[in-house]
Amino acid sequence: MATVYNWQLGRKMDYPYMDSRPQKQFTAVFNINRCIACQTCTMADKSTWTYSRGQEFMWWNNVETKPYGGYPQFWDHKILKILWDQGKNPMEWFTSAEDKDEKKAPYGYYGGDTIFELAITKELKQIAVGYIPTDKEWRFPNIYEDTAASEKTNIETKLAKEFSELPEHQRWYFYLQRLCNHCTYPACVAACPRRAIYKRKEDGIVLIDQKRCRGYRKCVEQCPYKKPMYRGETRVSEKCIACYPRVEGKDPITKGRRMETRCMTACVGKIRLNGLMTGDPDNPDPKNPMDFLIRIHKVALPLYPQFGTEPNIYYIPPRWAPRGYLRQMFGPGVDEAIEKYSAPSRELLAVFQLFRTTQTMISRFEIKYGKKVHETLVNGKVFELYDDTVIGYAEDGVELVRINVEEPTWESSEERMITY
Amino acid sequence: MLKKILWKSVVIAGVVAALLLSYNNKTFSQGAEEPAAKEENIPTKEPLIIKYLHLDANSADKAFEQAAPLNIKLQKQDKAFPQGGGSIKAIKIRGFHNGETIFFKLTWDDAVKNERVIKHEQFRDAVAMMFPLDLVTISPKTPFSPRMGDRGRPVNLWHWKADWEKELHLAGRFEHVEAEYINMFDDFHDNPNAVPVQNDLYSSTQFISGGRAAGTLLAKPDRGRSVEDLNAIGFGTLTSQTHQDVKGKGNWAAGKWNVVIYRPLTTPDKNDVQFVPGMRTFFNVAVWNGAQGDTNGQKSISIRWHPLTLERVKYQQQ
Prior knowledge:
Helix content of chain A: 10-25%
CATH topology of the largest domain in chain B: Immunoglobulin-like
Largest sheet of chain B: 14 strands, mixed
Number of helices of chain B: 6
Number of domains of chain B: 2
Largest interface: A-B, 41 and 41 residues
Radius of gyration of chain B: 24 Å
Shape of chain B: globular
Largest sheet of chain A: 4 strands, mixed
Oligomer: heterodimer
Helix content of chain B: 10-25%
Order of helices and strands of chain B: HEHEEEEEEHHHHEEEEEEE
Radius of gyration of chain A: 22 Å
Distance between the termini of chain B: 91 Å
Strand order of the largest sheet of chain A: 12-3-14-13
Order of helices and strands of chain A: EEEHEHEEHEHEEHEEHHEHEEHHHEEEEE
Distance between the termini of chain A: 75 Å
């Protein structure tokens, strides 16, 4: 085992391979607050990559209803249970000021076992603790759709008179959009005894070599997010490929520039922004929208950071779900993220406008400050809205989008109101 | 003074080098096998004698009756990650050659037949024989890993698979997913291929068919054989050959697998072990029990090499 640094945990951890970060990291930010679970992303992915025989159950991208839903069923309940029942100090975070460091430990220090560390202490025949889901668990892509957790299951909060009160409902559910996290320390890469899985140095995309794979299903077993899947028809395993031809700029539409993946560009709710993060986590680029949202502003959080794989799909947590549940899912950064999201700063609000304005990956943004247009109270504090302009640039410096915070509105003339 | 500094730097450099070496060794945990015990490099005494018999493949059953069996004890693979197996305790091997082809018959007890790997939780029954690729002497002084070979010491492996055997005798020579999920198209009692567009979709799938498009033999329909011809130079390096030469046939009856593996004594492939009547080489064997989830390094093995002797061809007066 080598020792690697995981900034999401704020500490070093054990991993079978030495630290070798990619030059740039494929990443995405999902705003859970805006998702309507239309599954357009899911179908975009399905119709592009997984429509063939043996892939019937394969949903490289899926949207599930939390807290009950999951694909495969109860994937997170099961892995959390393993960590909870067997691990040392499960879910233990130290978040005092001295445990935090802007660059090295933005969320504080995680004291518990990761899936890799638990496997070592338990001396299992696994690199990372895990299990192979059964057929039954792969059957329903969105089981318990729109099923709310009642106040009985909500341990943290008491029964309320008003059920629709924000920020936290008494009855709640939210949608979780999932795909391969293209982790910095992938458990699938670690688990493969043949090194058939690799993480690309240029963009951090994790791929299974279809020629090298022999269908041992170690990746299926040990990926905590259960995103590699075994394809019965070809007897080898497959996983999300991050639409790598598009990311490489092979699609003619973007004229050789990097393009966002199918699931991202198809997003109807405009919840997704896809891009490449700076490879060096110690030096985030404040002008890169990904680095800005994740590292500078810390409004987007990793999914189950305590697993220890340093996942690279980041989520803006939902405002209405109980904080305890969210902290378990996204780590201790939840409160700060929701606070920042509820009353966004001028910069953050401007960057939010970039979501789903172009198919080309935005690698840099600029803000031109405008005049104040609105003032209101948010959580008892004054919130001022400015009509700033945000400009998104491609990697080669070409301007891709220019959009204002205040959406332009037009009023139709009287004649146009006539209906026939 | 200078001497002191020089001496110090030598010591520090030595310590750093030692640390680096030990650290490097630990880096690749999967390569981190347990070091070979001395006994692993001592082949067993009793050889498997490959009898010369003037018989062909059709009378192989008769031939094996004349060949003396070698019983090999098997154990759990506990030498390298991921450890496992051990549910198969012993295997019986017989062999003969007819001057052109070498035949092996492997027999072991397995209560459950596992010959399908379509579901996530399905694993196959399999058996493999391993030979040093070149002519070698094996002793503690000239070690040769009995596990999966080693860097600079390649091995040739013949891997018989129960699912390949089954597919060999099926119409279409391949088991598609609908063999496991027989009602997969029947949700609405429709014929999935009734509409031409679906036919087009189905016929085009091979081009976007992951493993099949990549050309892996595991995904290929109509392989024409049940034994895969492979090479390895250590754990994790197993690689299928581009030129497949080994064939086999197996049947399961009354809780027992009987598998025959055969190949021409010599082949034009430089990655194949070559047999010459009269020669002596070594072999090793491993068995996978699909019912126990055996796959990869999780297998029942023999930890020592076994000698293999080929009888000379006896020319008979007609």
